[in-house]
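Bug: token stream looks shifted between consecutive jobs. Job 1:
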Amino acid sequence: MNHIVTVQDAVTAFADFMEPTDAELDAIEQEMPVILADVDLLDAQIVTLDRTPTELDERRIRRARRRALAARVALVNRAAGATVPGGAA
């Protein structure tokens, strides 16, 4: 008995439409500071999951939150600056 096997996954796994476009890669690059700041915040929070946070841990989390917020604000400001003609706010 011969088994019928599908090769669709092997054929479409490397299709062009599966790769990110240049626009998507540019968007990821623009958001990279926010992503890295969020990773730092998660790292600071993960450290304190299994123990009571010390004063140093709390400072690290506060700093990471401020960096994440600042990165988000900078991203929003860049996006708003790019869409508003003439620099009007």
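Job 2, same session, no restart:
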Amino acid sequence: MMKVRPLQQERNKNMDSRAFPKRMIPWKQALVTALGVYPLLLSYEWVIAQVLPVQEMDRRITLLIIVVMIATTMVFLVMPMLIKILGSWLFQKTIKTNRK
């Protein structure tokens, strides 16, 4: 049988009793993402139509511009704000283990 040092035993004890990080529930994450993307899509599509000559541009380029704008805005502005507002609803309760 292998001897375990006291420090290692203490570390194992702490790992077994600590709470695991919260995890997003997938369907709620999808819903919150859709709530963020839909208004941005409508807004950016309108802005692009006002600023660029969309009728003369290839639709794929217009969509690429909109997708880059939405992705950037979602990552840095919208999702942190939505997670702050809806975080208690969005995440599962903390799971604790008491392994011996």
